[in-house]
Each structure stands twice: as C-alpha cells, then as structure tokens.
Amino acid sequence: MTPTQPSAAGAPIRALPTSVTGFVGAADSGPVDTPVTVTSAADFHATFGPSLGADRPLGHAGDLFFANGGTSAIVVRAAGPAPEQLVPEEGPGGVHALDGSGVTVLVLPGLTAAHHAQVSVALSRCAAYGAVLLLDLPPGPWGPETEAAVQQVSDHRERAAAYHPWVVSGGVTVPPSGAVAGVVARTDAERGVWKAPAGVELCGVDGLVETLDASETDRLTQAGVNVLGEFPGRGRLVWGARTTASGQTADPALRYLPVRRLTDHVLGSLTAGLRFVEDETSDAALWARVRQLSEAFLHDLWRRGGLQGATPEQAYGVRCGPEETMTEADMLAGQVVVSVWLAPVRPAEFDVHTLRLRAGMPSQRAAAAREPVAAAQAPVLTVDLGQVVSRYIGETEKNLARLFDRAEQSGQVLVFDKADALFGTRTSVRDAHDRYANQEVSHLVERMARERGVEVRWQRRKGRGWRPRRGES
After folding, report:
1. pLDDT, position 461
2. In sequence order, which ranges of 316-361 are alpha helices (DSSP H)?
3. Residue 322's pLDDT is what?
4. Three-state DSSP class for 19?
5. Which pLDDT score is estimated for 364?
6. CA 46, CA 54: separation in Å to the nearest integer?
7. Cis upstream peptide for 372 (omega within 30°)
8. CATH fold match for the domains 21-259 and 274-360
9. How far apart are CA 412 and CA 378, in angstroms?
10. Block means of pLDDT (10 residues each) for the chain, length 473 residues?
11. Is the pTM of this model over 0.85?
C-alpha cells in the first residue's frame, strides 16, 4: 500500500519510513476527504482552523502530536464528526482517503472502542496498509462498560493499541491518541521502530482525568490496555506497549506493539525493494539476487539493534529457490517465493514469514504479444462466491487463496459477480458484520489478484440482487 517506485535490479533495499502518521477527524475548515501533509501545529491550524471543540478533538490531537515529538502528519478532514463520517463503510471518504498514502500509524480523534462497527472497518484498513490504530477508549473512568468495549474489538485486534485514561490539555478533556502518536514518532526517530514507545514522558498535558493505583494498572494490562500514569520524579508517562490482542495470545508479533510494527516494517520494505522482480525472469540468478539483497537489508537492521542475536545466524535468515521455498508449479507460474525468518524478541526464536512475488517472465510476455488471439482465449473460471464466502473472514481468505492458487497455476482468468463481491448483494444483509465482511472480501480479491498476477474480471449478471428486510437500508 506504500507508494514507492520499483527498485532497480540489484539496488540495495531501502528501509521505508516507519512513522507515517495519519489523522482523520472533523475540522472547522480545509478540504474534505483530501489528505493534507502538515509539519507543525501552526501548519495544521492554518489549514484546518482551531478545530478544538468537544466534538472536534482533531485540533487538540494535532497539537499534542507535535508537542510530543511528531514532525509530520497526513490529515484528512472528514465530512462531519459522526463515527460513520470518520470511518464510512466504503471509500473514498474518511479513513479511505488515506489509501495509498503509506500510513503506518492511524489516529481517529472522535472515534472510540465503543464504536464497534467503525473500529472493525478501521482495523481492516490498517491490515491493508500494514499499520496500527492508536485506539481511544470511551471517556470516563475504567469500568465494566469500558472493558467490554475493548473485549469486543475482534478482527485484527493485534493492530490496535488502546490507552487510558483521557488527558487534560488547555483545560479541555481530550482523548490521548494524538499525544501517544507523537511519542511513537519520537521513539522511532530516537531509538528505532523496534523500541517500545513506553516509559516516555507526555508533553503538553496538564493532567490525567483518572489516577490509577498498582492493582488497577495490573487489571488494565491484563485487559490489553496501556496505562498513562503519574510517576513521582518522572512525570506523566506512557506505561505499556501492548496490543489489544495481548490478553489472548503469547505470540510476540501479535502481543506487543513494537514487534508488530517492526514486522510490518520489514515485510513492507522487502516487498517494495524486491519489486524489480516483476521485470525479471525467474531463474537461479534472480533467486540468488533476492537472497543477497534481503540478507543485506536484514543484516543492517540487526547491526542497528533491530533483531536479536550475537551473530547474524541467530537474528535472521532468508531462503529462496527450488526445494526450499518453491514448487515446480511456482516456477512454471513465474512465482518467486521468499521465506524470511526474524528474531525480534530473543536470539534464535524466529518468526517466519513468506513473501510471494510475481516475476515478469519477459520471454513469455513477448510470446504472448506475438500471439494475441491465443492470449485473448485464456481459460475463464466464473466464481460463485456463495461457495467461497464463509461467515468467518479467515475461512473466506483461505478459500480465496486456494482459488487463486489454482488460477495462477492454470493461467485461468477469474470472473466475479460484482454484485456478490460488494456488500450485501450475495444474500440479505443480516447485520453490520455482514456488510463489513463482504467489503473485506472485495479487498481480499483485489489484493490476491495483485500478489499472484491473476487476471480478475468483474461482471454484474442480470436478475441478481437483494431486497432489504424491513428496517434495513
């Protein structure tokens, strides 16, 4: 999702920016649903006005971001302050205006964990961006309702980091996400994306709306919430760097914010830096070059302290080639499959990730150009999504992956019914979950088509459709 130019063949892989902060909120002025880059609080207010009302916390969030070390942000003014305007069901407005901007940290002043449907959509966009959401909790003291709101964060909860309590700035009670985003940016710049943005002083804050004792802090930590607290002699600090998934998993990449962000950074940088394979033939020379460039990138990251281990072998590894990462079918299809393992927490305790790249196979493209009729007659497979889409998006993703694997190996063109793929047109929409699940299906189809180089066509067959039940719209 990050806009980059493909690297030249053999050029070193460049590290992508780690802290690209995106804000979406209501403002007094400025262009609507248009990303604007600002580099200071003054720059922000010159474009978006004061925006300091209780229903417009965006202005305070921007001020606190820059006060805590942020240097640049991409700001989208939503059409209004309602959660549905900050995070509409589909684009191009609100959070969707950030598509393609390279955002890695998302802040939504005015949206809280209590807005379950909108949080779900926001996290699905974070998954597409390789980003995390700094999630505000509802205002007020910690209690059963607030804890329930956190527990209802479901899909992609490893990409949400929640903070409590709210803060006082300029005499106004405001959500803390803007200040925390500044702390994240400062930590990245001073210490690296692999360091926890915790134990760091909050600036520009007059006070906290709630003081938590040790037992309350422990209870919030167990619930996957990071605490903001007053510490004698140290000031007001961000305390904790866990995701909302931390109470449900022991996997560091899902449990800890810096591990999640480091993993996204590595995979995003490698994917962008290896994009040159699109213009290369998949052969032994290319596989060796992919290994060499990937290892050089990871070696530099290890040398700077981003990976754990006394030796490179304890910190990282890369494999790419037949009988290691690629099957005969992969090679025939021009797939370059890269296995990357990282030790972000302890030496030799590796997280393993797979990158699937599509080589260009220029000789085959030239042959296709000489035989346009044969190319036009590629086999077509019409997909009935009713046989693919599950109630659970994870199962749907597996079904789609098998479908795209088959198409990739056989050279088939996949034809989807556009009405089926978007929102509730496959069946009646029973609840909000269906709407967001169906939206995510369309994103999955488009992403898998890009990753595997499979041609996808959309059509809308006549006579298809749905009628809302009474009370639905």
Report:
1. 46
2. 328-332
3. 92
4. coil
5. 46
6. 20
7. no
8. no
9. 6
10. 47 94 96 96 94 82 97 96 94 92 96 95 94 95 90 91 94 94 97 96 93 88 93 90 90 92 96 93 93 97 97 97 90 92 95 91 44 50 74 72 78 71 39 45 77 75 36 33
11. no
Please state the φ and ψ torsions of residue 147, each to the nearest 5 degrees. Answer: -60, -40
Would you say 422 and 327 are in contact if contact means Cβ atoms under 8 Å apart? no
Q: What is the pLDDT of residue 225?
A: 95
3-state SS assignment for residue 365? helix
Which has the closest alpha carbon to 242: 161, 186, 179?
161
Q: What are phi and psi of 227, to 5 degrees?
A: -100, 140
Do 198 and 239 form a contact (C-beta atoms < 8 A)?
yes
Q: Which residue has the tokens 């996290």?
A: 123
Contact 340/347 with Cβ under 8 angstroms?
A: no
Q: How far apart are CA 122 and CA 343, in angstroms?
A: 29
CATH 3.40.50.300 fits 378-459, yes or no: yes
Beta-sheet strands, E only, within 78-232? 105-112, 132-136, 160-164, 167-169, 172-174, 200-201, 207-208, 225-231
- Taking a C-beta distance cutoff of 8 angstroms, is the pair 113, 128 a contact? no
Cβ atoms 209, 167 nearer than 8 A: yes
pLDDT of residue 62: 96
| Antiparallel, parallel or unpaired: β 380-382 and 413-417 | parallel
> How far, in Å, are 366, 371, 413, 449, 458 from residue 374 at the CA level?
13, 6, 13, 21, 21
Q: What is the pLDDT of residue 420?
A: 52
Question: Domain 21-259: which CATH class?
Answer: alpha beta
The residue extents of the domains of the chain are: 21-259, 274-360, 378-459
SS (H, E, C) 239-305: ECCECCCCCCCCCHHHHEHHHHHHHHHHHHHHHHHCHHHHHCCCCHHHHHHHHHHHHHHHHHHHHCC
Three-class secondary structure of residue 250 per DSSP: coil
State the Cα–Cα distance between residues 226 and 220, nearest whole angstrom.
7
Which residues have C-beta within 8 Å of that of residue 5, sequence separation ≥ 6? none
Residue 122: which of 420, 466, 436 has the closest Cα? 436
* pLDDT on residue 134: 98
**Domain boundaries 274-360, CATH class:** alpha beta
